[in-house]
Sequence to fold (727 residues):
Amino acid sequence: MVPMKTQWWEKPLRMLRRDYVGDFTPFLNADMEQLARETRKIWKANCEWIMATPGCAPGTAHLTLFNSEKFEKMPGIGSRDIIREYLPYARKYNINIIAYINMHWYSYEFAKKHPDWEQLLEDGTPYGQKHPLYGNGTTFCVNSEWRNWAFELIQEVLKTGVDGCFLDGPVIYPGACYCQSCKEKFREFSGSTRMPKFLDWNDPLWKKFAEFRANSWADFMNDAMKAARQINNQAVLFLNGGSFSSSNILLAYDTGRMEKVQSITGAEDFFHCTDYYRSPFTSLNLSRFLSAGKNPSVVFTHHTLSTWHYVPLPEAELSTALAQSTAGGSNTWFAIFYPAIEKTKKYAIEGLKKTGNFIERVEKFICGSESAAETGVLISNKTLYYYISCLKGLSYDVGSGKEQGLIIDTGTQYSFDINKQREKSIDIVNNENHGCLDLCNFAHIPVRVFWDEYINAENLRKIKCLILPNSACLSEKQIGEIMNFVHSGGVLMADFESGMYDEYGNRVERKFWLEFLGIQEIYGAFKPSRIEDYIILTKKLGDIDDGILIPRPLNALAIKSTENAEVIANYLNPINMAYAQPKGISNYPAIMIVKRGSGRVIYISSPIFESFNRFHIDWHKNIIQLLIRKTVKTGLQIETDAPGSLAIEIRKKDNDLLVHLVNVTSDMKRPMGCIIPVYNVQISLKAGLKKAISLSSGKKLNVRKNKHRLEFCVPEIREYEIILLTD
Ligand SMILES: [Zn+2]
Fold:
């Protein structure tokens, strides 16, 4: 068999975008050869984005920055064609060019000429009238005739000779779209002449509409790709596809559905200065999520200080964003802003020097590598879309301080508002997803992400442990695959309401599944508590003695376990009052382990990762780590004395392993002011290999074989290091 040629976009990409914010004079006046040279030599990029249409006020997406007889040119550009003029220099420096096409921000004036194109809200108001885009402008519908205009624009852009297009939009906005085209297409899709109200969870048609919206977008991309390939059968087409958030349903994002109709899967992790805690590993987590599909992936990083676009991102932040994107298996991308960059260039370059140069240097090692993590985490988009817990007690207000009974059952004392319940439910899921990935980072448990569609035997064979962070909405097929995985020796760690709903969020009676998890009966939810409530270990776990109290996660289920379950921890009887004496151990198990076939199920009746994301308590982290060590027959994939601020990712290439070490030990704030090196880090990992080489220094490290493990010490880790393990 002839091996398939690796396409340019399947090799490591380092993307750069120069942003001129509506004034392209600096670009038109620049020495373009120098710009291309700098792209390669200074910014270390091998792929550059050039604006085909500007994305600026007052909605200029219908104007072009290149010559086309079919489209209107941006005023002030004259006969200049920024794409065709720059391309020869890009080619000279071996830079692939992606054209940026704004597909979501149009002026009211342009929209007036095409009254059927705008996205409409339920009451028929154009979206942009009610919610002016960026203060001024409107947006069009993927199901309207605008799509043909958009496809023609893509074709005109590709005729310039660029290698592909990034589509910034279309965006299907919250509350849209109720235009005539959508009404007709929805009737075909659902058989209903009626359209549901937006986010009306009481109307079953709403979920159909949510599916319709996601399908509409994928259908648009599918046709866009066909149009693009008519001009260039190697054309790359992709968009900003969103990450893993419950807001996906509002914007019709569905990474799994979109990957089939785009060439690259990308999403933003722009740094934002916030007044709340921000995980130091957001780029790593997003990178792993994006690289879980079949496409190459990219994390978009703004090289700007949050919303101050003319100040470069501090060195430590850019360094780690690029390192984390790479370690998680994705490509890098950053944007720099003109004209400010002319003055601030040296600061911007500083941010790139450390990891950016290193990533370029180790390109051949990164190329074609894949995750070798033994632990999988399901990030379920179906759960993000549709989960609304049936547990009425979740909506209980934590702040009231009122003493209630032991648990909140499904009785009548609490009014049930479905919107409030959705809010509480997705709060749990969002925190669970992020908390699970972060807990594993801090615990040095390398993980790979699974999307719903990739829960199958072939993929599950690659891991030893699967974590379901309250993956509530699972299909029968997924449940079957997961049970088979455990029966044939895998370890499942599931918490809270995992698998208790179908993939559309309907509560299902899955007695066999509950029994499989070790649950005989569910009584209801405990009152949410963040004060003086505890889990007590009833058995020694690793080096934690029995009898130890651990903060109870915010939410918890009261259940009865099956007789064959080994209970590790119970809840104490609720106190929920400061400085009060404990009231003894309840009968409700918090953590248990059951043997199923050749495998094990760890069931935790609290969404423990939610609490880790909220409170960052090491007891929770340590318990998870110890449970995996106890149940996975070959132990933890990594044992190390490193602090939690060193993320360890394992990837493999052919027979070699690459241990990515991303250090975020810092001055304890974000934006980080500096990264503090860590020294003499001991690492032991499962590997049948003999040599360890530091790719930053090129030096061989001393190794020790210990049964099936390889042990070595890394003398110094600054921002980013990769250790190559080889024969
Ligand atoms: Zn529409």
